Amino acid sequence: MKQKTDFERELKDRRAEVQRSEQRVAQREDTLAKKEDALDKKLENVEHIKSNLKAKEEEINKIKDDISDAHNQLLKEIENAAQMTKDAAKEHLINLMKDDAQKKQIEKLVISLPEQFSVVQSIIRRKLPFRWLICRVKI
Asked: 3-class secondary structure for 20-32?
């Protein structure tokens, strides 16, 4: 009877240990399954990002090609329209840029004219000598 009781207790302990082991294994399986799902999602995300980058790269390359084609076409049109060589067209563009810079300087002078005009008006109102006017007006 004692042996039977000892045997039953030992059997009960072993069953409990087997159950605990099974629970640990099941818990590990769940943990691994969750990690696997997380890794799958990350992999999908990486693949999605990769495909987006590839599409953007293709788009950028297409834009670069379009810009290059447009630039070459513009150069041809400028040379054809002006009947100039590349160097002559370059010189012409430099002259245009110089003219533009001179126009901007003139614009600055015109913009400053109202200030100078108000100085002249105040001088006239005060009846200051003309010499003082010349010193104040910037040209």
From this structure: HHHHHHHHHHHHH
Provide the phi-psi class of 127: left if phi over 0, else alpha when psi is between -120 and 50, else beta. left
CA distance 93 to 80: 15
Q: Which amino acid is at 96?
A: L
Residues with Cβ within 8 Å of residue 85, at least 6 apart in sequence: 79
3-state helix, strand, coil in the chain (%, to 5): 95, 0, 5
- The DSSP annotation for 54-71 comes to HHHHHHHHHHHHHHHHHH
Single pTM value for the model: 0.41
Q: Are 101 and 111 in contact (CB under 8 A)?
A: no
Provide the residue count of the chain. 139
Q: What is the pLDDT of residues 27-74, one digit of tens each?
A: 999 999 999 999 999 889 888 888 888 888 888 888 888 888 888 877
